[in-house]
Here is the input.
Amino acid sequence: MSRLTGRPSALIIDDSQFICKILAKSLLDYGFRMIAIAGSCEEAEAHLATFAPDLITLDLVLPDGNGFDLFNHLHTEWPEAHIVVVSNLRHQEQYEKAKSVGAHGFIGKPFEEQQLKDLILELDIGK
Here is the structure.
């Protein structure tokens, strides 16, 4: 949890502005303070140079890289962050791979806001 506000912070990594808006609204409604939204691996790296979020939502298909490659970097550099994969790739193999590399959760697009809130509650971050 952020020491500055007592509320957790989040980084949303997704190239869909629509998905980013839904995630941001849901997280803000649930008590997060939103720090950053990144539409690419490069933007994510730039944001992570200045802060360490409590939650990272990660799309697997990004314009400048593979989400699984970025996941490995995020998991190594920010081991305390909860990383949740949010992706259109809803195949069982993608879900299994996300779990095997250490993802804290997997949400397929499209998703219900309640799915995200339930996962945050399960991870014990937020309210």
Q: What stands out?
A: The first strand starts at residue 9 and ends at 13. The chain has a mean pLDDT of 87. The two ends are 11 Å apart (CA to CA).
